[in-house]
Amino acid sequence: ATAADSYVRPMGAIASLINTQLSVAPGDSVTTELRIANNGDVVDEFTIEPLGDAADWIEPIPRTVSLFPGADQIVTVIFAPPRAPTVRPGPTPFALKVVSREDATGSIVEEGAIDVGSFDDRSIELHPTTVTGRLGARYELAIDNRGNEPIDVALAGSDPQAACDYRFS
Predict the structure, then answer these.
(1) Which DSSP state fits 117?
(2) Can you give the pLDDT at residue 163?
């Protein structure tokens, strides 16, 4: 037997992301493609596992693929961050692990980054809404920030007759 006869082709996956740098606004979605190829000598099933901070809002379609030796398939990868304060704006690294059922050591990880946009969602409430009195009144102002980055707030008061003074604490 020669050295060529004893060569065993490695099993596992070959994978490549079509686009490793993406941008998306929270509440929207963006897609890219992941090409998976079977590098082994047997039919194999590959599972795609999203990893990292973005894993909860990454959806590979299909999540598993079965491939003959030497065959490849394109998987659509959807990134859909929710419009929620927990989704941080800015670059977010992500990874897609392609796991071989036949040879777990033949698994591969493809990495990229997605730039998540910021959004503003705030509300302001005045309590109580009306008060009567001669010497003064006290109000509470509730400001809710449901966006995904800090906000600066400046307060001012006015009335049409310019009959009131306003102080904020």
Answers:
(1) P
(2) 76
Residue by residue, what is the 3-state secondary structure of 145-163? ECCCCCCCCCCCCCCCCCC
For 57, phi and psi rounded to 5 degrees?
A: -120, 30
* Residues of the chain with confidence (pLDDT) below 50: 1, 7
pLDDT tens, position by position, 50-62: 999 999 999 999 9
Burial per residue of 102-135, b for 16 or more beta-carbon CB atoms within 10 angstroms, e otherwise = ebeebbbebebbbebbebeeeeeeeeeeeeeeee
What pLDDT was estimated at residue 158? Answer: 82
Q: Which of 60, 83, 82 is nearest to 73 (CA)?
A: 60
Spatial contact of 126 and 157, defined as CB atoms under 8 Å apart: no
pLDDT per residue as tens digits for the range 109-121: 999 999 999 988 8
Please give the Cα distance from 31 to 16 (Å, whole number).
14
Alpha carbons 113 and 132: distance in angstroms, whole number: 56
Residue 15 near residue 74, CB atoms below 8 Å: no
